[in-house]
Structures are given as C-alpha cells and as structure tokens.
Specification:
124 residues, mainly alpha
C-alpha cells in the first residue's frame, strides 16, 4: 500500500467522510498540500501504534486551541468524538489550555466545540 493510500484510509476513518470533502477548499488552488497532509501526518504519524487515536486526537485538539486555528479545530473535535473522546473530555482539555494560551483562545475553542456538538446532535 502506498503512503497516499495508507494516509487516505487513515484520514477517512478518523474524519468519517470522503477525502474529497475534507480538502475541497484547497484542492483547486493547492492540491499538493492536501496530498502532503495525507502522506505525512495521516500515513506516517496517525498510524503509529505507540499511541492510540483517542490520545492523538485530544492532543491535536489541545494544540489547535493553543494555535487558534478554528476551522481545523472543528474538524479535529469531530475526529476526537469519532475515535472515542467524550464531549466532557474535549471541554476539559480546552479549558485546561486556558492556562497555556489564555482565555480568549480557550473561549474560541469552547465555541468551536459547541458548534460541533450542535452539528452532531450532542447538544441543542
């Protein structure tokens, strides 16, 4: 299996949607960027056996809260739910990040989580 095929299988199972949908915003202008994401983090990092996907996704959520990258944060909150993290765990990790990145980014993270929870029918 090629790195691309391995990464595609990984990302689609974690995100629970087709690859074409995941990168639709950038495919027309930078198709190689999506390929890089598929071939490196999702093929080489996410498939390593030393850490489970639940842990990897909650770490990714924490990192994206600190960075303040909301569109990708929402994707990874969704992915964190898909691989077994609970809404409570996600909220707690985002709240913990307030100590490291400040309240504005933590609040933005909570708002992003709320939007994902509403979209998934977890809360109203």
């Amino acid at each position: 299996m090629s790195r691309y095929e391995k990464g595609k299988e990984s990302i689609e199972s974690i995100q629970q949607r087709p690859l074409e949908e995941i990168f639709k915003e950038i495919d027309d202008i930078a198709p190689d960027l999506g390929r890089f994401v598929v071939e490196y983090p999702y093929s080489e990092i996410y498939t390593r056996e030393e850490v489970d996907l639940k842990t990897r996704e909650i770490c990714t959520v924490a990192a994206l809260v600190v960075l303040g990258t909301i569109p990708q944060l929402k994707d990874h909150i969704n992915a964190a739910l898909n691989v077994g993290n609970t809404p409570t765990e996600i909220v707690e990790i985002i709240m913990q990040m307030s100590a490291y990145c400040g309240f504005p980014k933590a609040i933005n993270g909570i708002v992003a989580a709320k939007e994902v929870f509403i979209e998934k029918g977890i809360i109203e």
